[in-house]
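Hi P.,

Sorry for the delay on this. The queue was packed all week, but I finally got your sequence through. Input first:
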Amino acid sequence: MIKKSLKVVIGLALLVGTIAIVNSWTAASGISMALLIGPSTSDSLYRGFKVIFNDAFNKAQPSYNRIAMTIPSNTKQETYAWLGAFPRMKEWIGPRNVKNLAASDWTIKNKKFEVTIEIPSEDIEDDTYNLFNPMIGGMGMSARMHPDELVFSLLNAGFTQKCYDGKNFFDTTHAFGSNKSTKILNATYYGAALAAIGRIKDSTGNPLFNGSEKLTLVTGPELEETAKQMLNADFISVGGGSTQNNVWKGTADYLKSPQVTSPTAWFIIVDFMGLRPLIFQERKAPRFITKNNPQDSDYVFMNDKYVYGVDSRDNAGYGLPQLAYGSDGTVA
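Then the structure:
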């Protein structure tokens, strides 16, 4: 027992002596006991930040894919020659009637997008880099929601911006018919919109739709109550305190988006065999990258800061106005 106690005392003495020697050596040399940043530390920090980025990216819930189709891109721009061409079966008499899909030269050019932050090295050395976790998560959410910003900005501007046929995307003078209104959202004008959609023609003058297409009504937050009552209620008010059966119940899904900037505008989106009216064109998906190695990064060496960023190459554009109906809701 005495020998065992003696060994413990000697061990503690050696430990205390070692700590004292280390402390005196670091004090004399001016080296801090703070985190020393090397390649392994930088890599570990990047991996940790990437987990946070990916988690926020995956939890974000964009809605652009409910009003736009995603088209992969393999070059700096894509030409959509097929827009407006809906081939239809006809009786075969004589040679085949070959449709020219090069009638449109509508082109969408890819653009570069990025978001970048820098972290001072002292925040890493002092082990306070966790303060930047919300910023890294915000970058992940921003990257995921980026297509929403592009696509809904097109929807908002559709009353004044032109599409492949030279008309405004929402217009009363398209060759296929009108897809524009100025009326407020109510049961009467919603019914008129459905009737206008049902009368949309293809390039041969025949009805484009068969009535079984999936529809989505899109508004901003201000029209949520009106939209939900119209699509879900069993009865609707017809004025004077009277009600009637709601014939529009279940005729469309509903999408509320704060990206719809007008408090009065409303839109109906037609999902036609997987086609949607707007295009999100993706050349390079968002990637999380860094400059964080002081051994091989000139930026880190010269600025004493570590850089983390996200970049992508993509864009959005107008596709098929036949598949959308819009009203600015300015007229009662």
